[in-house]
Amino acid sequence: MPNQQALRGIYAITDADLLADDTQLQTAAESAMRGGLKLLQYRDKTADPSKALRQARLLADLCLSYNCQLIINDDPELAKAANAAGVHLGQSDSNLIDARELLGKKAIIGSTCHNSIELASLAAQSGASYLAFGRFFPSLTKPQAPSACLDILKVASQFNLPLVAIGGIQPEHLPSLAKAGASMVAVVAGIFAQPCPKTAVETYRNIFEPTLSFTSYEANYDTLSRSV
Ligand SMILES: Cc1ncc(COP(=O)(O)OP(=O)(O)O)c(N)n1
Ligand SMILES: Cc1ncsc1CCOP(=O)(O)O
Ligand SMILES: [Mg+2]
Asked: Would the annotation count 66 as a binding residue?
């Protein structure tokens, strides 16, 4: 299991349409990491298991060099095979408790909660490492994703878990998301549809990170845990 770091800051998610082959994936992911990315999700819905394993391992190697944590979307077995830091599970994916058993207590396991405090409560009880809400804004990557409103983040602070906001997030949205309680923002197109992912990550970080210190769930934590 790679080193654990605080779950806060920018969370980039890859996209198979935007990054069509291994070279594009590697180049874009490395560029994002050179911009200071510390959390990356591998998301490929094309369901080709051999490609998925090859690319997940490629990203895992790259993440090691940049001290970035790799999360695999949907697939706990792939996360294990690639020695990733964890997995992100939606409501139609594998069961969180089974994934925890497979990956161990140190694994990062995220759960999609859409706009629902009931789903968040279930995920928290099942041992989720973070709760993801969204989509907050129109998204070209997943236009049909159920929408969420900022208030859900405020209500979800009761779980004392890192809260992720996702869906159409642009730099100008960051102050309101941080103020509402997001400790991470998950971004696909805002980073990987840009000509330079490094510059994009720097732009998001420069706006989000200073705001976070005073507004995230970590405000109650010892400053030592603030280590993006
Ligand atoms: C950080 C983060 N949040 C939400 C999702 C969406 O997961 P899911 O609902 O399972 O949808 P797909 O991504 O599988 O289409 C995510 N991947 N990451
Ligand atoms: C996977 C996912 N789940 C809800 S919105 C979304 C896509 C986010 O991508 P983008 O940042 O390009 O809107
Ligand atoms: Mg899923």
From this structure: no
